[in-house]
Amino acid sequence: MDKKKILLLTSIAIIITLVIIAVTFFALHKSNNAYLKALPKDALALARLDAKSLLTEAELTKEEMAELLQRYSLSSEKSAAIGLDLSLPIYGFAANDGNFGFLAAVSDADDLTAWCESLAAQGHASEVTRQRGYSWVVVEQRWLMAFDDKKAMMMGPAVGGAQDRQRAVIAQLMQQSDDESALQTDLYQLLGTKDEPLVAAVRPELLPENVLGALGSLRLRSSKQGLFRLTMNPDDDELEVDIDIISNDEDVLAELNKVNTLMRPIAGHLTNNAHADNAIWLAINTKGEELLKLLRSDAGIRTTLLTLNLVLDVDRMIEAIDGDVALEFTSAKATPESGNINFNFDFKNASLTAQVANTDFLSGASKWGNRIINVTALSSTDYVVNIEPTPIHFGVKDKIFYVGSEPGLITEGNAYLREQRSDILGARFYATMNLSSIPLEPVSILSKIYPDLNRLDVKMNDAGEFTFTLKASDGTNILRTLLNL
After folding, report:
1. What is the pLDDT of residues 281-309, one digit of tens each?
2. Residue closest to 147 by CA, chosen among 119, 106, 178, 176
3. What pLDDT band is residue 333 in, cutting at 50, 70 and 90?
4. Residue 399 pLDDT > 50, yes or no?
5. What value, to the nearest 5°, has the Cα angle with vertex 106 and ends 65 and 159?
6. Cβ atoms of 46 and 91 closer than 8 Å
7. 108 Cβ partners below 8 Å, 6+ apart?
8. Which of 47, 106, 394, 414 lies 20 to 30 angstroms, CA to CA, from 382?
9. Which residue, among 276, 285, 306, has the nearest Cα to 417 in the 3D structure?
10. Is residue 230 within 8 Å of 242, Cβ to Cβ?
11. Structure pTM?
12. How confident is the model at residue 180 (pLDDT cuts 50, 70, 90)?
């Protein structure tokens, strides 16, 4: 055989090998992800949970893994096989009809059937039936699940006729094509922008009106204007949750820029002007003139300012602010009348500090007050508003304005704030809460169930980018704590 034939045969062999490798990879890839085409195209939210990654982060032993699987699978067997492929992500979704759903890959349909039958024997599920080419079971009377040898979908909560309609919806989703699914939607594509163990993408249409209203002038009410992305990542003794607004809408971006203009990067100058122990401490950096415009835009606050200005020149105080502003509560208590759902802060436990550009607002302080409320000068820069039961002290020292129930500027310093200084600097909003000092449900319940959880920090680096960090005691694996292991 001459060299040309050998070269030709070798080339053909290489091409055939590459084709086989490509076809095999595509087949495996398609097989591993075939279950995803069941995701509804019109979903209001999608979430991806990488259970394998989470369990790895928890550093579980084989015995603990078995215990966990037994506990959450409602099985009486320690080594129960539930038939779901947990090496692949589990997906959750919010349907546009108000129901919620879960989608997982199936590793063994016989094991899944056996698991469902064990649930039925314990009274947690109905008997498994066959219909429309799928196995069906109702879990805890409200959650309808269908599965075959590739995927399992559960939706609910629903009962009666609603469950019958849901059966038709699930059957349609289980057999739809890629083009009919969520795989080409912006919502699904957004999940792929992050690789944390839990990633969710949410349309504004899913959020309740009071939440949308809290966004104020942002007016992010349609998925055409933008989406919300949520990620969760445990790391040793911390659990970090990021919530971002993802938008290319000019109006939304303009409003976010306005927030960035109002709330400038925190310089960290007030971290030493806090009590050694506190329940809540929060800070921003702003210019008083812009802040006053924002406050006056709210009718209720505008009325309050008018009332306060009858006693003090509050407008000039606010206008003098130029820099960090910090608000602190040394303790808090819940309001019995509100069923423990709102805070009732005693003013004697609150204080505010702010950097000011000048002290010109004090020039007329000798004339402040009225026949009902008296303002007394303690020095040229320190004053007290004599009201019962808690007099209000205010003044300026080293261009730091203070107001609170205690005379003088607080200089105790807080060890935790010193530790977090690098996180505080540059953020446009920062807040930290000592969970054990907040008797508000569900915070108080959380502290009782998980005593190792001790702190929640909230940070906004730029408008629309929030980070919530739940912290446990040093040396604690927070994920193991939350799993009660």
Report:
1. 999 999 999 999 999 988 999 999 999 99
2. 106
3. low
4. yes
5. 95
6. yes
7. 81, 83
8. 414
9. 276
10. yes
11. 0.85
12. very high
Q: Is residue 418 within 8 Å of residue 271, measured between CB atoms? A: yes
- What are the structure tokens assigned to 285, written together? 């950096």
Paired residues of 376 in beta bridges:
384
- Residue for token digits 């969970």? 435
Q: Which residues pair with 385 in a beta bridge?
A: 375, 392
Distance CA 453, CA 447 (A): 6
Token pair listed for 99 = 């129901």
| pLDDT score, position 222 | 84
Amino acid symbol at 314: V
Q: Looking at the chain, how many residues does it have?
A: 485
Contact 456, 34 (CB under 8 A): no
